[in-house]
Design a protein that fits this description.
The chain is α/β, with parallel strands linked by helices. It contains 16 helices and twelve strands. The chain has a six-stranded mixed β-sheet, with helices on both faces. It has a four-stranded parallel β-sheet with strand order 7-6-5-8. A hairpin with a 7-residue loop joins strand 1 and strand 2. Helix 4 packs across helix 5. The radius of gyration is 25 Å and the shape is globular. Bound molecules: ligand F0G. The site of ligand F0G has 22 residues, from helix 5, helix 10 and helix 14.
Protein backbone atom coordinates (compact mmCIF):
# COMPACT_ATOMS: atom_id res chain seq x y z
CA UNK A 1 0.00 0.00 0.00
CA UNK A 2 1.03 3.62 -0.38
CA UNK A 3 0.45 5.87 2.61
CA UNK A 4 0.45 9.58 1.92
CA UNK A 5 0.89 11.55 5.07
CA UNK A 6 0.20 15.24 5.62
CA UNK A 7 3.75 15.33 6.98
CA UNK A 8 5.09 14.41 3.57
CA UNK A 9 6.22 10.92 4.48
CA UNK A 10 5.47 9.22 1.17
CA UNK A 11 6.50 5.63 1.79
CA UNK A 12 5.77 2.52 -0.15
CA UNK A 13 5.47 -0.36 2.25
CA UNK A 14 4.26 -3.87 2.02
CA UNK A 15 2.33 -4.42 5.23
CA UNK A 16 -0.17 -6.86 6.70
CA UNK A 17 -3.56 -5.29 7.62
CA UNK A 18 -2.41 -5.14 11.28
CA UNK A 19 0.90 -3.51 10.34
CA UNK A 20 -0.97 -1.08 8.14
CA UNK A 21 -3.16 0.01 11.07
CA UNK A 22 -0.08 0.36 13.32
CA UNK A 23 1.76 2.42 10.72
CA UNK A 24 -1.19 4.77 10.30
CA UNK A 25 -1.47 5.08 14.07
CA UNK A 26 2.23 6.07 14.36
CA UNK A 27 1.88 8.68 11.60
CA UNK A 28 -1.27 10.05 13.22
CA UNK A 29 0.46 10.36 16.62
CA UNK A 30 3.47 12.11 15.08
CA UNK A 31 1.21 14.56 13.26
CA UNK A 32 -0.61 15.35 16.48
CA UNK A 33 2.69 15.88 18.31
CA UNK A 34 3.92 18.22 15.57
CA UNK A 35 0.70 20.24 15.82
CA UNK A 36 1.23 20.58 19.59
CA UNK A 37 4.84 21.70 19.14
CA UNK A 38 3.69 24.42 16.74
CA UNK A 39 1.20 25.71 19.32
CA UNK A 40 3.78 26.15 22.11
CA UNK A 41 5.77 29.33 21.48
CA UNK A 42 9.53 28.87 21.80
CA UNK A 43 10.44 30.90 24.85
CA UNK A 44 13.89 31.51 26.23
CA UNK A 45 13.47 33.08 29.62
CA UNK A 46 15.87 35.27 31.54
CA UNK A 47 17.38 34.62 34.97
CA UNK A 48 14.64 36.35 36.99
CA UNK A 49 11.86 34.18 35.60
CA UNK A 50 14.03 31.08 35.86
CA UNK A 51 15.24 31.52 39.44
CA UNK A 52 12.56 33.77 40.93
CA UNK A 53 12.34 31.78 44.17
CA UNK A 54 15.97 32.66 44.95
CA UNK A 55 15.73 36.35 44.04
CA UNK A 56 14.33 39.39 45.87
CA UNK A 57 11.47 39.99 43.41
CA UNK A 58 7.71 40.08 43.81
CA UNK A 59 4.77 40.07 41.39
CA UNK A 60 5.09 43.85 41.37
CA UNK A 61 8.68 43.84 40.08
CA UNK A 62 8.74 44.77 36.39
CA UNK A 63 11.09 42.31 34.71
CA UNK A 64 13.50 44.14 32.42
CA UNK A 65 15.17 41.29 30.62
CA UNK A 66 17.11 40.49 27.47
CA UNK A 67 16.76 36.71 28.00
CA UNK A 68 20.17 36.71 29.69
CA UNK A 69 21.73 33.64 31.30
CA UNK A 70 21.35 30.00 30.30
CA UNK A 71 24.90 30.12 28.95
CA UNK A 72 26.68 26.91 27.90
CA UNK A 73 29.02 24.85 30.03
CA UNK A 74 31.58 23.69 27.49
CA UNK A 75 33.83 20.71 28.19
CA UNK A 76 37.47 21.53 27.45
CA UNK A 77 38.94 18.94 25.07
CA UNK A 78 42.54 19.98 24.47
CA UNK A 79 43.45 21.83 27.67
CA UNK A 80 43.56 18.89 30.15
CA UNK A 81 45.99 17.00 27.87
CA UNK A 82 48.10 20.07 27.24
CA UNK A 83 48.68 20.57 30.96
CA UNK A 84 48.88 16.89 31.95
CA UNK A 85 45.56 16.92 33.73
CA UNK A 86 43.82 14.20 31.72
CA UNK A 87 42.34 12.74 34.91
CA UNK A 88 40.19 15.84 35.57
CA UNK A 89 37.37 17.48 33.66
CA UNK A 90 37.58 21.20 32.91
CA UNK A 91 34.47 23.11 31.83
CA UNK A 92 34.13 26.64 30.52
CA UNK A 93 31.06 28.54 31.69
CA UNK A 94 30.98 30.82 28.66
CA UNK A 95 29.40 34.05 29.81
CA UNK A 96 30.49 35.82 26.63
CA UNK A 97 27.28 34.43 25.13
CA UNK A 98 25.05 36.71 27.19
CA UNK A 99 23.07 39.38 25.26
CA UNK A 100 25.70 42.11 25.63
CA UNK A 101 28.60 39.65 25.61
CA UNK A 102 29.43 39.40 29.32
CA UNK A 103 28.24 38.07 32.69
CA UNK A 104 27.19 41.58 33.70
CA UNK A 105 23.75 41.05 32.14
CA UNK A 106 22.79 38.70 34.99
CA UNK A 107 23.28 41.38 37.61
CA UNK A 108 22.00 44.17 35.43
CA UNK A 109 18.57 42.62 34.75
CA UNK A 110 18.11 42.52 38.53
CA UNK A 111 19.54 45.99 39.27
CA UNK A 112 17.54 47.70 36.52
CA UNK A 113 14.31 45.81 37.29
CA UNK A 114 14.57 46.83 40.96
CA UNK A 115 15.46 50.42 39.99
CA UNK A 116 12.32 50.50 37.81
CA UNK A 117 10.24 49.10 40.66
CA UNK A 118 11.55 51.88 42.92
CA UNK A 119 10.61 54.48 40.32
CA UNK A 120 14.15 55.47 39.31
CA UNK A 121 14.51 57.49 36.13
CA UNK A 122 18.27 57.15 35.69
CA UNK A 123 21.17 54.86 36.52
CA UNK A 124 24.93 55.37 36.72
CA UNK A 125 28.08 53.28 36.93
CA UNK A 126 31.86 53.42 36.70
CA UNK A 127 33.22 50.74 34.47
CA UNK A 128 36.18 49.06 32.84
CA UNK A 129 33.70 48.50 30.01
CA UNK A 130 31.37 45.55 30.43
CA UNK A 131 29.23 46.98 33.22
CA UNK A 132 28.69 50.13 31.17
CA UNK A 133 27.69 48.15 28.05
CA UNK A 134 25.22 46.10 30.05
CA UNK A 135 23.81 49.04 32.03
CA UNK A 136 23.30 50.99 28.81
CA UNK A 137 21.48 48.10 27.13
CA UNK A 138 19.07 47.43 30.00
CA UNK A 139 18.43 51.15 30.52
CA UNK A 140 17.56 51.56 26.85
CA UNK A 141 14.96 48.80 27.19
CA UNK A 142 13.00 50.71 29.81
CA UNK A 143 13.70 54.29 28.67
CA UNK A 144 15.92 55.10 31.62
CA UNK A 145 18.81 57.51 31.33
CA UNK A 146 22.20 55.88 31.75
CA UNK A 147 25.42 57.68 32.71
CA UNK A 148 28.70 55.80 32.53
CA UNK A 149 32.15 56.87 33.77
CA UNK A 150 35.01 55.26 31.87
CA UNK A 151 38.75 55.42 32.65
CA UNK A 152 40.50 57.25 29.81
CA UNK A 153 42.37 55.09 27.30
CA UNK A 154 41.98 51.85 29.22
CA UNK A 155 38.80 50.36 27.91
CA UNK A 156 38.40 47.85 25.10
CA UNK A 157 36.91 49.43 21.97
CA UNK A 158 34.02 46.99 21.62
CA UNK A 159 32.72 47.88 25.07
CA UNK A 160 33.00 51.61 24.51
CA UNK A 161 31.05 51.50 21.27
CA UNK A 162 28.36 49.35 22.92
CA UNK A 163 27.78 52.03 25.57
CA UNK A 164 27.49 54.69 22.87
CA UNK A 165 25.22 52.67 20.58
CA UNK A 166 22.86 51.60 23.39
CA UNK A 167 22.44 55.32 23.96
CA UNK A 168 24.25 55.96 27.24
CA UNK A 169 25.81 59.29 28.16
CA UNK A 170 29.48 58.33 28.22
CA UNK A 171 31.86 60.40 30.33
CA UNK A 172 35.55 59.63 29.95
CA UNK A 173 37.46 60.34 33.15
CA UNK A 174 41.15 61.23 33.38
CA UNK A 175 41.81 58.61 36.01
CA UNK A 176 41.45 54.89 36.64
CA UNK A 177 38.43 52.74 37.50
CA UNK A 178 38.89 53.18 41.25
CA UNK A 179 38.70 56.98 41.10
CA UNK A 180 35.71 56.78 38.71
CA UNK A 181 33.86 54.50 41.14
CA UNK A 182 34.48 56.91 44.02
CA UNK A 183 32.94 59.70 41.94
CA UNK A 184 29.91 57.59 41.05
CA UNK A 185 29.36 56.73 44.72
CA UNK A 186 29.51 60.41 45.65
CA UNK A 187 27.19 61.57 42.86
CA UNK A 188 24.56 58.85 43.40
CA UNK A 189 24.56 59.50 47.16
CA UNK A 190 23.57 63.12 46.56
CA UNK A 191 21.42 62.89 43.40
CA UNK A 192 18.33 60.89 42.43
CA UNK A 193 20.34 58.45 40.33
CA UNK A 194 20.58 54.73 41.05
CA UNK A 195 24.10 53.27 41.23
CA UNK A 196 24.38 49.98 39.30
CA UNK A 197 27.94 48.98 40.13
CA UNK A 198 28.21 45.76 42.11
CA UNK A 199 27.98 47.72 45.38
CA UNK A 200 24.29 47.65 44.42
CA UNK A 201 23.20 44.42 46.20
CA UNK A 202 20.83 43.41 43.38
CA UNK A 203 23.79 43.01 41.04
CA UNK A 204 25.29 40.26 43.21
CA UNK A 205 21.85 38.66 43.55
CA UNK A 206 21.50 38.36 39.78
CA UNK A 207 25.05 37.18 39.21
CA UNK A 208 24.71 34.31 41.69
CA UNK A 209 22.38 32.56 39.20
CA UNK A 210 25.41 31.45 37.16
CA UNK A 211 26.30 29.10 40.03
CA UNK A 212 22.74 27.71 39.97
CA UNK A 213 23.01 26.97 36.26
CA UNK A 214 26.32 25.16 36.75
CA UNK A 215 24.81 22.95 39.49
CA UNK A 216 21.78 22.27 37.29
CA UNK A 217 24.02 21.27 34.37
CA UNK A 218 26.49 19.14 36.34
CA UNK A 219 23.95 17.64 38.74
CA UNK A 220 25.95 19.14 41.62
CA UNK A 221 28.57 21.81 42.28
CA UNK A 222 32.03 21.26 40.73
CA UNK A 223 35.02 20.54 42.98
CA UNK A 224 36.77 23.79 42.01
CA UNK A 225 35.54 27.03 40.52
CA UNK A 226 38.10 29.33 38.86
CA UNK A 227 37.20 32.94 38.18
CA UNK A 228 38.94 36.24 37.33
CA UNK A 229 38.79 38.86 40.08
CA UNK A 230 38.57 42.60 39.46
CA UNK A 231 36.13 44.50 41.63
CA UNK A 232 35.43 41.10 43.27
CA UNK A 233 31.64 41.19 42.87
CA UNK A 234 31.46 38.06 40.76
CA UNK A 235 33.44 35.74 43.06
CA UNK A 236 31.24 37.01 45.90
CA UNK A 237 28.11 36.27 43.85
CA UNK A 238 29.16 32.76 42.81
CA UNK A 239 29.98 31.79 46.38
CA UNK A 240 26.58 33.05 47.51
CA UNK A 241 24.92 31.12 44.70
CA UNK A 242 26.64 27.84 45.52
CA UNK A 243 25.94 28.27 49.23
CA UNK A 244 22.24 29.08 48.75
CA UNK A 245 21.69 26.20 46.34
CA UNK A 246 23.20 23.75 48.80
CA UNK A 247 21.13 25.16 51.65
CA UNK A 248 17.99 24.74 49.54
CA UNK A 249 18.89 21.09 48.90
CA UNK A 250 19.39 21.68 45.17
CA UNK A 251 23.07 20.64 45.36
CA UNK A 252 25.09 18.56 47.79
CA UNK A 253 28.67 19.82 47.70
CA UNK A 254 30.45 23.18 47.56
CA UNK A 255 33.41 24.06 45.33
CA UNK A 256 36.70 25.55 46.38
CA UNK A 257 36.67 29.09 44.97
CA UNK A 258 39.83 29.96 43.02
CA UNK A 259 40.08 33.67 42.21
CA UNK A 260 42.76 35.11 39.93
CA UNK A 261 43.96 38.68 39.66
CA UNK A 262 46.43 40.05 37.12
CA UNK A 263 49.84 40.41 38.75
CA UNK A 264 49.98 44.16 38.00
CA UNK A 265 46.55 44.63 39.61
CA UNK A 266 46.53 42.22 42.51
CA UNK A 267 45.50 44.11 45.67
CA UNK A 268 43.83 41.13 47.35
CA UNK A 269 46.83 38.86 46.80
CA UNK A 270 49.26 41.55 47.99
CA UNK A 271 46.87 42.58 50.77
CA UNK A 272 47.21 46.25 49.89
CA UNK A 273 45.60 48.79 47.58
CA UNK A 274 47.42 49.10 44.25
CA UNK A 275 47.61 52.82 43.33
CA UNK A 276 48.40 52.43 39.64
CA UNK A 277 47.08 49.05 38.52
CA UNK A 278 48.30 47.76 35.16
CA UNK A 279 47.48 44.74 32.99
CA UNK A 280 46.57 43.90 29.40
CA UNK A 281 43.34 42.47 30.85
CA UNK A 282 41.76 45.94 31.13
CA UNK A 283 38.49 44.55 32.56
CA UNK A 284 40.27 43.62 35.81
CA UNK A 285 42.60 46.61 35.98
CA UNK A 286 41.40 47.52 39.47
CA UNK A 287 43.51 48.45 42.48
CA UNK A 288 40.91 48.74 45.25
CA UNK A 289 38.06 46.25 44.78
CA UNK A 290 34.66 47.24 46.20
CA UNK A 291 33.82 43.65 47.21
CA UNK A 292 37.25 42.89 48.70
CA UNK A 293 35.69 41.36 51.83
CA UNK A 294 33.30 39.22 49.79
CA UNK A 295 36.25 37.73 47.92
CA UNK A 296 38.12 36.97 51.14
CA UNK A 297 35.00 35.34 52.56
CA UNK A 298 34.52 33.21 49.43
CA UNK A 299 38.16 32.13 49.56
CA UNK A 300 38.21 31.32 53.27
CA UNK A 301 34.80 29.67 53.64
CA UNK A 302 35.39 27.48 50.59
CA UNK A 303 38.99 26.61 51.47
CA UNK A 304 40.10 28.10 48.16
CA UNK A 305 42.81 30.44 46.91
CA UNK A 306 43.15 33.94 45.50
CA UNK A 307 46.30 34.10 43.42
CA UNK A 308 47.73 36.16 40.59
CA UNK A 309 48.79 35.43 37.02
CA UNK A 310 51.12 37.43 34.77
CA UNK A 311 50.09 39.12 31.53
CA UNK A 312 52.20 36.52 29.68
CA UNK A 313 50.29 33.67 31.34
CA UNK A 314 46.97 35.38 30.56
CA UNK A 315 47.98 35.86 26.92
CA UNK A 316 49.03 32.23 26.54
CA UNK A 317 45.71 31.00 27.94
CA UNK A 318 43.77 33.53 25.82
CA UNK A 319 45.38 32.23 22.63
CA UNK A 320 45.14 28.58 23.61
CA UNK A 321 41.43 28.47 24.32
CA UNK A 322 40.67 30.28 21.04
CA UNK A 323 43.09 28.30 18.87
CA UNK A 324 42.60 24.85 20.42
CA UNK A 325 39.19 24.90 22.08
CA UNK A 326 37.30 27.18 19.67
CA UNK A 327 36.28 29.48 22.51
CA UNK A 328 37.03 33.17 22.01
CA UNK A 329 36.96 34.97 25.35
CA UNK A 330 38.42 38.31 26.37
CA UNK A 331 41.81 38.59 28.14
CA UNK A 332 40.35 39.02 31.65
CA UNK A 333 38.42 35.77 31.21
CA UNK A 334 41.62 33.98 30.28
CA UNK A 335 43.01 34.86 33.73
CA UNK A 336 40.84 32.06 35.17
CA UNK A 337 42.31 29.54 32.72
CA UNK A 338 45.84 30.83 33.33
CA UNK A 339 45.23 30.34 37.05
CA UNK A 340 44.13 26.74 36.57
CA UNK A 341 47.26 26.08 34.49
CA UNK A 342 49.44 27.64 37.21
CA UNK A 343 47.88 25.48 39.94
CA UNK A 344 47.98 22.34 37.77
CA UNK A 345 51.76 22.76 37.49
CA UNK A 346 51.89 22.59 41.30
CA UNK A 347 49.77 19.39 41.30
CA UNK A 348 47.05 21.24 43.17
CA UNK A 349 44.01 19.41 41.73
CA UNK A 350 42.74 16.07 43.02
CA UNK A 351 42.38 13.23 40.53
CA UNK A 352 38.91 12.77 39.06
CA UNK A 353 37.77 16.28 40.02
CA UNK A 354 35.65 18.70 38.04
CA UNK A 355 36.83 22.27 37.51
CA UNK A 356 34.67 25.06 36.12
CA UNK A 357 36.30 28.22 34.71
CA UNK A 358 34.07 31.23 34.19
CA UNK A 359 34.89 32.89 30.89
CA UNK A 360 33.40 36.24 31.77
CA UNK A 361 33.27 38.04 28.41
CA UNK A 362 33.46 37.61 24.65
CA UNK A 363 36.75 37.94 22.79
CA UNK A 364 35.03 40.26 20.31
CA UNK A 365 34.93 42.94 23.00
CA UNK A 366 38.62 43.70 22.61
CA UNK A 367 39.54 43.77 18.90
CA UNK A 368 42.72 45.76 19.52
CA UNK A 369 44.24 43.11 21.76
CA UNK A 370 42.99 40.40 19.41
CA UNK A 371 44.82 42.05 16.50
CA UNK A 372 48.07 42.60 18.37
CA UNK A 373 49.68 39.30 17.33
CA UNK A 374 51.11 40.41 13.95
CA UNK A 375 48.70 38.32 11.92
CA UNK A 376 49.40 38.74 8.19
CA UNK A 377 46.61 40.75 6.65
CA UNK A 378 48.10 41.75 3.27
CA UNK A 379 45.80 41.03 0.35
CA UNK A 380 47.13 38.76 -2.42
CA UNK A 381 46.32 38.66 -6.13
CA UNK A 382 43.12 36.68 -6.86
CA UNK A 383 45.04 33.87 -8.57
CA UNK A 384 45.51 30.19 -7.73
CA UNK A 385 49.28 30.68 -7.64
CA UNK A 386 49.17 33.61 -5.23
CA UNK A 387 46.73 31.90 -2.87
CA UNK A 388 48.70 28.62 -2.83
CA UNK A 389 51.91 30.55 -2.16
CA UNK A 390 50.20 32.40 0.70
CA UNK A 391 49.00 29.10 2.18
CA UNK A 392 52.50 27.68 1.79
CA UNK A 393 51.59 24.85 -0.61
N1 LIG B 1 35.93 39.65 33.61
C1 LIG B 1 35.39 40.65 32.89
C2 LIG B 1 35.26 40.45 31.42
C3 LIG B 1 34.93 41.82 33.52
O1 LIG B 1 34.40 42.79 32.79
C4 LIG B 1 35.11 41.95 34.91
C5 LIG B 1 34.70 43.18 35.59
C6 LIG B 1 35.67 40.89 35.62
C7 LIG B 1 36.08 39.76 34.94
C8 LIG B 1 35.85 40.93 37.09
O2 LIG B 1 34.64 40.80 37.74
O3 LIG B 1 34.73 42.91 39.02
O4 LIG B 1 33.10 41.13 39.59
O5 LIG B 1 35.52 40.82 40.03
N2 LIG B 1 34.35 44.24 35.01
C9 LIG B 1 33.82 45.44 35.67
C10 LIG B 1 33.30 46.41 34.65
C11 LIG B 1 34.70 46.00 36.67
O6 LIG B 1 33.28 47.62 34.92
O7 LIG B 1 32.87 45.99 33.59
P1 LIG B 1 34.48 41.46 39.20
Amino acid sequence: MRVKSKMNFPLTLSLSPKGEREYEWIICTMELAMEQVKKVPVKKIGIIERYQEFLPVTDKTPIISLNEGNTPLILAEALPHEIDLSDVKIYFKFEGLNPTGSFKDRGMTMAVSKAMEAGAKSIMCASTGNTSASAAAFASRCKMKCFVLIPEGKIAKGKLLQAFRYGAKVIIVKGNFDSALELVKEITATHPIQIVNSVNPYRIEGQKTAAFEICDDLGDAPDYHAIPVGNAGNITAYWRGYSEYKKAGRSVTLPKMLGFQASGSAPIVLNQVVKNPETIATAIRIGNPASWQGAIQARDESGGIIDMVTDEEITWAYKFIAEREGVFAEPASAAAVAGVIKLAKKNYFKKGSRIVCTLTGSGLKDPEFALSFDDKMDAVEPTMKAVLTAIGL
